[in-house]
Design goal:
The complex is a heterodimer of chains A (311) and B (292). Chain A is of the alpha/beta class. Chain A has helices at 50-57, 79-83, 101-110, 117-126, 142-154, 172-187, 200-206, 224-229, 243-249, 275-284, 299-307; strands spanning 10-21, 24-35, 39-43, 65-70, 73-74, 86-89, 160-164, 192-196, 209-214, 217-223, 234-241, 257-262, 266-271, 288-295. In chain A, helix 3 (101-110) runs parallel beside helix 5 (142-154). The longest helix of chain A has 16 residues, at 172-187. The relative contact order of chain A is 0.14. Helices cover 65% and strands 3% of the residues of chain B. Chain B has 292 residues and is mainly α. Chain B starts with a helix and ends in a 5-residue tail after the last helix. Chain B is globular. In chain B, a hairpin with a 2-residue loop joins strand 1 (51-53) and strand 2 (56-58). The chains are: A alpha/beta (311), B mainly alpha (292).
Chain lengths: 311, 292
Amino acid sequence: MSEPAVARPVVLETTGLTKNYGRRRVVDQLDLTVREGDVFGFLGPNGAGKSTTIRMILGLIRPTAGSVRLMGHDLARDRLGALRQVGAQVEAPAFYTYLSGYRNLMMLGSLSGPVGRDDIEETLRRVRLKGREGDKVRTYSQGMRMRLGLAQALLPQPRFLILDEPTNGLDPQGMKEVRELVRQLAHEEGITIFISSHLLAEVQQICDQVAIINQGRLVVHGAVSTLLAEQGETSLEVGCDPVERALELLQEPPGWVQVRSQGEQSLLLQTAASAAEVNRRLVAGGVAVHRLVPQQHSLEELFLALTGDGQ
Amino acid sequence: MILLLRHELARLARRVTPYVVLLAITALILMVVLGFYYDPPGIFSGARAERKLNDVQVVGNMLNGLLICQFVLKSLALLLPYLAPVVAGEILGAEGGSGTLRALLTRPRSRSAVFGAKFLAAAAYTLLLCAFTMGVSLLLGWLAFGWGQLFEFEALQAGRVVIFTEAEALRFLALAYLLLALAVFVTSSLGLALGSFFDNGLVPGFVALGLVIVLQIAMGLPFEWAETVRPYLFTSQLAQAPQVMPTNFDPETLALQVPWDQVIWMLKVCGVSIAVFTGIGWWRFVRKDITC
């Protein structure tokens, strides 16, 4: 991201967003900000309130309290204006199964603005459904329906794309393609993307901003890199020989590294020092270093730490 | 709204249920025609022959397409209010059940426009249903028995003779089927309204059907309160459409006597019922949380 966050306009802002079902509070005072150009990951364990939040953002569910500003429009007052430049796929994609994929896209797409045959064919090519558009949706596999769901979200050529679990039902190849498509949309076409997923490694790979909610409450919200850096010391896997000499060298000063495990020709260290510093000291002490692999904290570790193992 | 309506009609045309209903009606009309053909009521036996009716010597074809059309209006067509809500309920309820409603409502279209398009699609189907019933009964009746003037069926059964020319008969039948469409649309709008309460394609239609039957049973109870309420309830008007066919004429002017008071009352009750059901359905639809 080239521009600093504060300079970019806000695409989505929720303030005190709350939803109650009877006495049960499903979403609690949620404040989110998504800026233009962000690829925003929205995470939370099952039942955390992710889908309810997305539905409130899209006007499908009326909030009990709080407000949503989408594309500069107050959703409660100007829902149509807010949705004009938004493409969305909410949960499992649903289609008229007795109609063809092409007909579904034409029907849904035209409700956001004029849609031509070329637009549909181009979108179908992007999601790799070209050639099957004439078949009835009832004959599609789950993966194909997911691609069609992506296509209908992309068809209005949105500036803001909301994708709820977009890789559900896709095989590894399909997941990779969606990941690449999201990157391409964000980086080449400048589309802001809000993506909810339970596949944390995937979110870590494609998102630059993330919010984690648990039991309806916002637990953390910020840049992925910052949040991971705030987790503190990282692990360092060192391949070296002889290991005993390396251990001697790393003992001074006491406490600057901790040895978490030891192999025949390898060590796993917990340290705040950089890989370069460890390398310098070992090589200077006559140890042959043949591998240095810094192991960063993953989003999964962060997620589990913040949500109590996802419970 | 026009685009939404076009989509609704296109979807309706590709569903199975509307065709099942039309097929069922065709089958029933065919049964009526076959019944008249092979086992006509006494008054029509030897239908093409010369016969004497009271003091009137009848020459020609009493049993013809127009009479079949009127017979269907007075019998089979009165079942349409029980069939139509199944399709109308599906128009809205099935969208909730399949999840397509959320795809539709994340588009920049107002919920009122979406509901309005569904309302108009249900109205169009109701009109088609009644026009189809009239058309098929005329066609099958004409194919089986030919054409001729219409001897009003009810008067005939009462031993009186009221004869319409072909043009008069077609005019009155069209008006009666139009009134029938209004009565049918009352139950359709009830089905549509219930579609915004149930996220299911079948439940709204069957709940509407259940409500109509329960109300009809309740209004048939021999109590004073039922007598008082009955004229104001739509269930009492569902079978009134055929009444627009005159069964009598003014002996002095020989003008056909249409019971306009009865027809206007039916229009009022059905109109208000449609407005109430549609209003409730719209109110619920624009407020409901789409959780399906």
